[in-house]
Design brief:
By secondary structure, the protein is of the alpha/beta class. It has helices at residues 42-49, 72-78, 95-100, 111-117, 123-136, 151-163, 181-196, 208-214, 232-236, 239-246; strands at 2-13, 16-27, 31-35, 57-62, 65-66, 80-82, 169-173, 200-204, 217-222, 225-230. The strands form 2 sheets. Strands 6-7-8-3-9-10 form a 6-stranded mixed β-sheet, sandwiched between helices.
Length: 249
C-alpha cells in the first residue's frame, strides 16, 4: 500500500533549477533510497517533503492527504520525521536527554522545560525512552554527555530521537556516512528491524553497498531530474545511472 508520494514537484533558487517535475511514490513498510551525484537535489527533496522548503509547483501527499508547504512541526505531528546529514546533537545534554527532546510531549515546550520535565516523566514515557536506548544499543552511554560519545553512537542517538516522535515515515540523510563497516552493518540491521516493526524508511545515501543491499526501491536524481527508478538490480545497470553516477555496472 502506498504511504507517500510527490507529484510533479519543482523548486528553483534564482536561475538554478534544483528539483524539476519530480514524481515518485513509496510503499508502506519498505526501505527506499534517493541517490545521485553531489548537487543532484537529494537534500532539497528532503527539505521539500518535510516543510523546510516550499515547492514552486507540485504536490506532496502522505496517506492520501496533501501536506505541501505545511510547516515542519505539523508534518512531524502527522507522522513524518527527518534527520540531517550532519549530526545535530545537543552536546551538553546526555544521550537520554537528547532522545527525550524527540517525544511528542515535549514539542510545545522549550528545551529547558523539556529536559527538566524529563526528570519527572511518567513510567510510560520512561519505558519508551528506555526501549529506544535499548533498541539502539546505547545502554552503556545513556547518561553520558552527547559530546563524549563516539560518532557512531551519536548517529544511533539521532536515529533514536527521530523514533521518539512516533513517526511512521523516517527520512534519514546519509545514515551510514562516516561509519566503519561494523557500525554500517549495525545501522542496516536496525533499519530492517524498523520496517519489521511497521515503519517506512526513505534514505539519502552515497554508500552504494548499503543502497544495493538494503533498498526495496531506489530513485535516482541528476541535476534535479529523476533519471531512473526501480529495484536496486534494475537501476544498477541502467545506462543513464551508470553515465551520471555509478560509472560501472
Amino acid at each position: 500500500m502506498s504511504i507517500f508520494a510527490v507529484e510533479k514537484v519543482s523548486k528553483s533558487f534564482g536561475g538554478l533549477k534544483a528539483i524539476v517535475d519530480l514524481s515518485f511514490g513509496i510503499e508502506e513498510k519498505t526501505i527506499n533510497s534517493l541517490i545521485g551525484p553531489n548537487g543532484a537535489g537529494k537534500t532539497t527533496a528532503f527539505s521539500l517533503i518535510t516543510g523546510f522548503l516550499k515547492p514552486d509547483a507540485g504536490k506532496v501527499l502522505f496517506r492520501g492527504k496533501e501536506i505541501t508547504g505545511l510547516p515542519p512541526y505539523q508534518i512531524v505531528n502527522m507522522g513524518i520525521v527527518r534527520t540531517f546529514q550532519e549530526v545535530r546533537a545537543l552536546n551538553k545534554l546526555t544521550v537520554r536527554e537528547n532522545i527525550l527532546v524527540g517525544l511528542r510531549e515535549t514539542h510545545e515546550q522549550n528545551l529547558i522545560q523539556a529536559t527538566l520535565r524529563g526528570k519527572n516523566l511518567g513510567s510510560g514515557m520512561m519505558k519508551k525512552i528506555d526501549k529506544l536506548i535499548e533498541f539502539a544499543g546505547l545502554e552503556e552511554v545513556a547518561e553520558e554527555l552527547a559530546e563524549n560519545i563516539s560518532y557512531a553512537e551519536q548517529k544511533l542517538m539521532i536515529l533514536s530521537r527521530a523514533l521518539a516522535t512516533d513517526a511512521t515515515l523516517l527520512l534519514l540523510d546519509e545514515p551510514a556516512s562516516g561509519l566503519d563497516q561494523k557500525s554500517i552493518l549495525r545501522m542496516m540491521d536496525l533499519l530492517r528491524q524498523l520496517v519489521e516493526d511497521g515503519k517506512t524508511v526513505l534514505i539519502v545515501e552515497h554508500n552504494m553497498d548499503v543502497v544495493i543491499h538494503i533498498s526495496d526501491y531506489v530513485v535516482v536524481l541528476d541535476f534535479g531530474h529523476k533519471i531512473a527508478a526501480g529495484t536496486p538490480d534494475e537501476i544498477r545497470c541502467d545506462q543513464r545511472v551508470i553515465q551520471a553516477y555509478l560509472g560501472v555496472c
